[in-house]
Amino acid sequence: MSKKKMTILDFQNYKDEGRKFAYVTAYDYTTASIVNESNCEVILVGDSLAMVMLGYSSTVGVTMEDMIHHIKPVVKGAPNTFIVGDMPFGSYNVSAEQAIASANRMLMETNCDCIKLEGGVDLAPTITKMVKAGIPVMGHIGLTPQTSTSLGGFRVQGGTPESARKLIEDAKAIEAAGAFSIVVECVPSVVAKELTKELRIPVLGIGAGPDVDCQVLVTQDLLGMYGDFKPKFVKQFAQVRKAMVDGLNLFHEETLNGSFPSAEYSFNKDVEIPKLY
Questions:
Q1: How far apart are CA 222 and CA 207, in angstroms?
Q2: What is the pLDDT of residues 45-74, one digit of tens each?
Q3: Closest listed residue to residue 218, CA positions, set 31, 30, 14, 79
Q4: Which one, 30, 33, 113, 182, has the greatest CB density within 10 A?
Q5: 205 with 212: CB under 8 angstroms?
Q6: DSSP 3-state helix, strand, coil percentages of the chain (rounded to 5)?
Q7: pLDDT at residue 150 tops 50
């Protein structure tokens, strides 16, 4: 029996009822279809595809065209999973009008369920206008990869009383602006716990400890698909990279020793071969 797709109202219902849920990434049809068969409720087609799929060193180089190209097959592959489209750098930081136009395009061309964007107090007026325009918005604070350089690189945020206070201010501003949920990335557990208690909307945590409403991980991280790189907050729930390498090596070995393809994997119908000369 297939799972029932979450709605935006369900996000709030889950929070109100104290029900946890899980949120992972996908960037292609095959991965999306696998997630769709799982019990995970939410997929983010993140701008992290810049590194995961395109080999860039940061998320900044990914374009709206890149995002739309990857969101479309994910939506097709996961019809029973809530799909979040990530707004790329440069698509919403010029003006509210630009943000609305970019979000409209993403929603209309991909049929994803909502958009996500990074920013706090400064972005709240833009979020207000987007929500008034009928756009479902998921916020994102803490470590925001698009602006990680200005934050001092990929490091924990909210580790001092002042920065923790700023995170809470950002979160409350985003909630007041009308976002229906908020991703909190790489913050101390105690800060995330306080945010989760203070906010009415769900807090979706990645590297934010156990007390948030939803846990978020990049699928390639949690399945062990990278080499030696593993952030502190990532638990590897499977070792898919090793399984793939082992399978490829076995294919290579059987190709060289001639055991593949055997009769089982060959077409064995008798056919009269015409003379070619």
A1: 12
A2: 999 999 899 989 888 889 999 999 999 999
A3: 31
A4: 182
A5: yes
A6: 45, 15, 45
A7: no
Angstrom distance (rounded) from CA 202 to CA 205: 10
Report the candidate in 72, 68, 80 with the shortest Cα–Cα distance to residue 40: 80
**Could you say which of 41, 175, 185, 194 is catalytic?**
185
Cα–Cα distance measured from residue 210 to residue 70, given in angstroms and rounded to the nearest whole number: 30
Average pLDDT over the chain, rounded to an integer: 92
11's CB contacts (< 8 A; 6+ apart) are: 180, 181, 201, 202
- CATH number of the 8-239 domain: 3.20.20.60
194: left (phi over 0), alpha (psi -120 to 50) or beta: alpha
pLDDT of residue 148: 43
Asked whether residue 154 carries a pLDDT value surpassing 60, the answer given is no
Distance CA 198, CA 253 (A): 58
* Cross-strand pairs, 22: 215
Q: Give the start-to-end residue ranges of the domains of the chain.
A: 8-239
| pTM, full prediction | 0.92
185 is catalytic: yes
The predicted model gives 98-124 an average pLDDT of 97
Look at residue 94 and tell me whether its pLDDT is greater than 50: yes
Residue 24 tokens read as: 């992972």
8 Å CB contact between 58 and 17: no
CA-based nearest residue to 48, from 59, 56, 57: 59
pLDDT at position 151:
41
- Beta-carbon contacts of 193 under 8 Å, excluding residues fewer than 6 positions away, are 209, 211, 212
Q: Which two tokens stand for residue 4?
A: 């029932």
